[in-house]
């Protein structure tokens, strides 16, 4: 008699799905109905599998998702650990703000890890840390060392939560995941110095047990497309703008030319970081134009 059980897809290999159930990992294939309905099971999906008397297993149902992000995709993400490098590739506030805005739009929480801090001089590092202190002030958790991540991350991941690494290629995601799970054999690669961007060293999405939940390693992003965001909603994805906008004169203030705008006032007073506001304006232009800026192409 066939038996049904539930689990989480932790990997996809040559058409087979690895599903972590309460007791073990089951390698299974999806029923043909998925192809017929144009539904593709994804790593991170909560699913139902059926195991017959001969021990043959089939994936028969995908439970409702709360989100689906990335390419290749990852489902049901609870938290992003955003890896931003101090150098190689160079630390970039515009890139940091792009990632934070994108994941805010996706309604996924973010923590920030600064990698390669040992490769910059003390003056440069002090400047980077001063910038990151602002992001900590507005609510983002900041990790300034690999040791800090290794110590606290397994504790912070809640029961069956899915955390994923994200960040520019070459920022050090595979190096970090190696340190978090020593039995992994993730490849790392040197930076292409001619382009100041990394080579993709992770080709697939896979979940690994960490703490009470899972950590995903995914291919790095070299650019994020913000153009699907609705222009009049962009300001809501800057968390300090959204908070300040409660004191703007006009509801729905876009913080451009409106009088008595609290956001512009706080920028002028230095309470909102000027670069955040400038990056917001650049993102507005990008969405209006419907295409990535030249420096990201």
Automatic annotation (TrEMBL):
Residue sites binding Zn(2+) per the record: 248, 253, 255, 261
Q: How is the subunit organization of this protein annotated in UniProt?
A: Monomer. Associates with 30S ribosomal subunit, binds 16S rRNA.
Domain EngC GTPase, first and last residues per copy = 75-222
Biological role stated in the UniProt entry: One of several proteins that assist in the late maturation steps of the functional core of the 30S ribosomal subunit. Helps release RbfA from mature subunits. May play a role in the assembly of ribosomal proteins into the subunit. Circularly permuted GTPase that catalyzes slow GTP hydrolysis, GTPase activity is stimulated by the 30S ribosomal subunit.
Q: Which cofactor does it need?
A: Zn(2+)
- How and how many cofactors are bound, per the record note? Binds 1 zinc ion per subunit.
The protein depicted here goes by the name Small ribosomal subunit biogenesis GTPase RsgA
Q: Origin organism of this chain?
A: Lactobacillus helsingborgensis
Instruction: Look up keyword Transcription and say if it applies.
Output: no
- Establish whether keyword GTP-binding is in the entry: yes
Predominantly, its location class is: cytoplasm
| HAMAP family reported for this sequence | GTPase_RsgA
Occurrences of domain CP-type G (ranges): 66-224
């Amino acid at each position: 008699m066939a038996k049904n059980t539930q689990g989480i897809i932790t990997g996809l290999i040559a058409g087979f799905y690895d599903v972590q159930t309460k007791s073990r990992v089951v390698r299974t294939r999806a029923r043909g109905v998925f192809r017929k309905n144009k539904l593709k099971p994804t790593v991170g999906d909560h699913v139902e599998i059926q195991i017959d008397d001969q021990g043959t297993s089939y994936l028969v149902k995908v439970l409702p998702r709360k989100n689906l992000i990335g390419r290749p995709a990852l489902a049901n993400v609870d938290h992003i650990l955003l890896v931003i490098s101090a150098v190689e590739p160079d630390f970039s506030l515009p890139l940091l703000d792009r990632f934070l805005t994108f994941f805010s739009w996706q309604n996924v929480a973010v923590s920030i890890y600064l990698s390669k801090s040992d490769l910059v001089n003390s003056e440069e590092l002090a400047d980077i840390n001063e910038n990151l202190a602002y992001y900590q002030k507005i609510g983002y958790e900041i990790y300034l060392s690999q040791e800090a991540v290794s110590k606290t991350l397994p504790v912070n991941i809640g029961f069956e939560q899915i955390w994923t690494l994200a960040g520019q290629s070459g920022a050090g995601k595979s190096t970090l995941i190696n340190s978090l799970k020593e039995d992994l054999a993730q490849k790392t690669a040197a930076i292409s110095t001619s382009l100041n961007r990394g080579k993709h060293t992770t080709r697939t999405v896979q979940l690994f047990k960490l703490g009470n939940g899972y950590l995903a390693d995914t291919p790095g992003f070299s650019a994020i497309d913000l153009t699907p965001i609705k222009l009049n909603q962009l300001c809501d994805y800057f968390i300090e703008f959204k908070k300040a906008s409660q004191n703007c004169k006009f509801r729905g203030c876009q913080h451009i030319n409106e009088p008595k705008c609290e956001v512009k006032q706080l920028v002028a007073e230095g309470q909102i970081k000027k670069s955040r506001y400038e990056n917001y304006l650049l993102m507005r232009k990008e969405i209006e134009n419907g295409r990535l800026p030249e420096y990201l192409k």
